[in-house]
Amino acid sequence: MNEHTEWLEHLIRLFMSFVPVSILAWIGGTAKYLHDLQSGRKKHSWPGYLISSVMCALTGIIVGEFIPETMQMRDGLIAMSGVCAFQLLTVLEDTGTGVLKKVITREGEK
After folding, report:
1. pTM passes above 0.90
2. Residue 88: pLDDT band with limits 50, 70, 90
3. Residue 80 CA neighbour count, 13 Å, CB half
4. Closest Cα to residue 38, out of 47, 50, 28, 30?
5. Residue 49 CB burial class (10 angstroms; 0-12, 13-18, ≥19)
6. Fewest CB atoms less than 10 Å from the CB: which of 10, 76, 90, 109?
7. pLDDT tens profile 14-46
8. 38 and 73 in contact (C-beta within 8 Å)?
């Protein structure tokens, strides 16, 4: 096997490992989207739904990396991450920005 084939196979395995958590979070996010439609908080938009779906899948991947696969409630927590995807991503962005600033400042002082 050559180097390019091994890299491609690794990439495919990595992608396939993200599919289950993405689907769970997407289901949660779709439930939230439908709830928002029914309650009148949002009007239906296919681009809006697509963006929401991608954000939910991303959140599921991120959250899934922090939860052990052996944890009993893992699937439910990942689905819930899709429900509150935008809130979670906001927290991660704010926290991550603060952490990066601290690391960059420390490295600059060395």
Report:
1. no
2. confident
3. 6
4. 30
5. middle
6. 109
7. 999 999 999 999 999 999 999 999 999 989 999
8. no
